[in-house]
Amino acid sequence: MLQLESKEVADEIVLGEKFAATATWIQLFLRRHTLSLRARTRQGQTTPQDALDATKEFKTLVLQTIFENKCVQVYNADQTGINFEYLPKKQFPSAWLRQCG
Length: 101
Description:
Elements lengths: L1 H11 L10 H10 L18 H18 L33
């Protein structure tokens, strides 16, 4: 994103094709302006007190949905964990599948 924005600004102030916004340029730009790119994590965060209750409610809801829709096979297509506040560092691509009947 920073690379695209910097190229757009370079075009606006007519730097020409010689400006490439390389990885080194981005690193030096961030250091020069004391900026950093960080991901939000759950590290150091405590689990809420009602986490066990939320887990039990979710399990009940899933089992009830399976029973109501008469599902024979249930697949876990989402391999990310349950997050309470913060986004995970990395997220796996999800494939949503539903097979009932």
